[in-house]
Design a protein that fits this description.
With 286 residues, this protein is mostly helical. It has twelve helices and two strands, in the order ααααβααααβαααα. Bound molecules: zinc ion (ZN) (2 copies).
Amino acid sequence: MPDHSFWFYLFAFLGIIPSRYFLIAGGIYWACYTAGGQALSKTLLEKTIVGKNALGKTIVREFFVSRSLRRSPPSPQSIQKDVELSLLSAVIFAFAAAAIMVAYDQGLTRLYTDLDRDGLGYLGASFGLVLLLQDAYFYIVHRLFHRPLLFRWVHRGHHRSGDPTPWTSFAFDPAEAIAQALFFVGIVFVMPLHFIALIAVLMTMSVWSVWNHLGFELFPAAFARHWFSKWLIGPTHHSIHHRKYTVHYGLYFTFWDKLFGTQDAQYENEFDGALQPSRGEVLQRD
Ligand SMILES: [Zn+2]
Ligand SMILES: [Zn+2]
């Protein structure tokens, strides 16, 4: 691909990254939180194959009726705050992405474009490995950011909305956005990565983060106990983090929380219910 200036890349990413946010977070918010979106997505789901079998019907019913994780509807003010912080994060990620592209043009990164160079096996393996590394990095950084000295400056913004919505998925204080972006700036210099693998990681991060902040639980209770899905973080798992602050610091997988003792012992039981505030959870706010 032809070389471009830093400012060209910055301008391009300032268009791409916020658009991605509004498309994914905004689209999912519309589908889950507005009457028109709920009605349309319910009809669409029911008319497709999903609505024609027992599991699909269960999912649709639980998704739209009985499994809200919220204590109250989101306020327009909290959504506005989340969008403002997310746009700031998008600017920081755009700077990081532009810097990566300039470094790539100068042959300084280990990014590559030739699929035959390392093969499809490596493409898949590198995608998985970056997810694992990012998850470990996120766990460490996130746990540090909850230290009292740091929280106020670097992580308070993400928790400002209380119960999250999809709009919260990219809402980071600038210092946290820099820390998150630095992972990508670092990884492209140390690990050979095809652009497809890098883009796949970024898309996975965007969608999974919206998923974690959905505010609804989509899956039946078996999800938290199933031999495979118990290792995956989802809306209930991350909602508990937004309520309790002292557990569930991971991004994609539960094993760091389990290994370091920050997995909520009540997670499986909480998954069974709708996380009502009457359960007596202690809210820890700064
Ligand atoms: Zn947090
Ligand atoms: Zn969160």
